[in-house]
Amino acid sequence: MLTWSAISLRVAVRFFSSYRRGSFPLSKRVLVIGSGGREHAIAWKLAQSPRVEKVYCTPGNAGMAMTKKVALVDIASHQIERLVQFAEQVDLTVVGPEVPLAEGLADRFLERGRAIVGVTQSAARLESSKIFAKGFMARHEVPTAPFEAFTDVKKALRYLQTQQECVIKADGLAGGKGVTVCGSREEGRAAVESLFAQGDFGVRGDGIVIEERLRGKELSYLALVDGDSIVPLQMARDYKRVGDGDTGPNTGGMGAFSPVPGVDRDLLSKVEERILKRVVRGLGKEGITYRGILYVGLMIVEGEPYVLEFNVRMGDPETQPIMMRLRSDLYDLFSALAAGKLSECAPDWDKDAALCVVMASAGYPGIYEKGLAISGLDTIEPSDQVSIFHAGTAWDAERKRFLTGGGRVLGVTARGETLEEARERAYGVAEKIRWPGCYYRKDIGVNQ
Predict the structure, then answer these.
(1) The domain over range 8-120 is classified in CATH as 3.40.50.20
(2) CATH number of the domain at 352-448, please?
(3) Residue ranges of the chain with pLDDT lower than 50?
(4) What is the pTM of this model?
(5) H or E stretch including 411?
């Protein structure tokens, strides 16, 4: 017969054996794939979980490496086989950018029985092909702007003669910069010829979509979807144009805030019933199980929601203020999503507002200089009200300073009891940070 001391010893041995293997629930390891501000915010939030022992970021950026519990791994997002192999030592993988998903990364993980937050290649077509997405919405009566798709430049130009204002979208992935809003036929013609002749924006695809220009208020709606259950995250509003007053070319995003004033239960119900549920049901009818994050870019026209675009991952920079407001354990939410158990989840949110100001390099979204010294970061006092998420930075070990390494460099994100308080706090911090040619929009959160 075992004594209590013997039983206690066996329990202790099992405890520490489980801990060393990483199977003990308080020692989970997570892999975050990506290197931008979105991935930094995700890693930052995951690292706050008492259940998470380590967060690996591949390839990550210099700012992520400064976050407690976070370590960088030198594997690029397109190195799928290396990522699959590395993931054998983690409990969960979270995919930040869209390109690996479009290239079938999640499919490879699922084939190996690895838990992943990321949709399959077939589901990723909602983002990787604008032509597929618009056709899908037409088939399943998802409200969106009237459109036509073209793979022939002459036919596209002839169609433009029937339009005044329109929006032209490259078919494939373009890093958030493959959309041109045209106020005249001349602008439309220039955009069409440029896309077909030069393959602008690094687009992966061989066609374009020309759609009617909608006017209203834009919203970003994010949700977790596990094939059956839909768990909404908080709505946000982002700013895509590079300049104040929504001027200049589109970018990957120059700022965002959450929550969005004026979003009532009636609007949310319309979005959920007419869009989210129809999308999930429609994908199922076409033999596609959607398990991952669904981002819906919306235009609200006289109280009615229309889909502008789908993304199959978290938005950037919407993720930054949303993570600032999330009270729930992100690891629990993501692990439930990967396991198909979202029906058991109900995220808890802070009532405070949060706002992100993206600080960019001169020339973005075009050509910009890298390797410029960033000053002022060491003057920012640590606070639970402000987080600086790195997007494109590098670390100069010799001089112990951060350098610019991308077009979007930092996302200064602040929380406040009101949107105005969050805005003042974020801009107050941004004003202390400098590098040659740095700029940011001054009107994030002003036009609500």
Answers:
(1) yes
(2) 3.90.600.10
(3) 1-24, 200-204
(4) 0.90
(5) strand 408-416
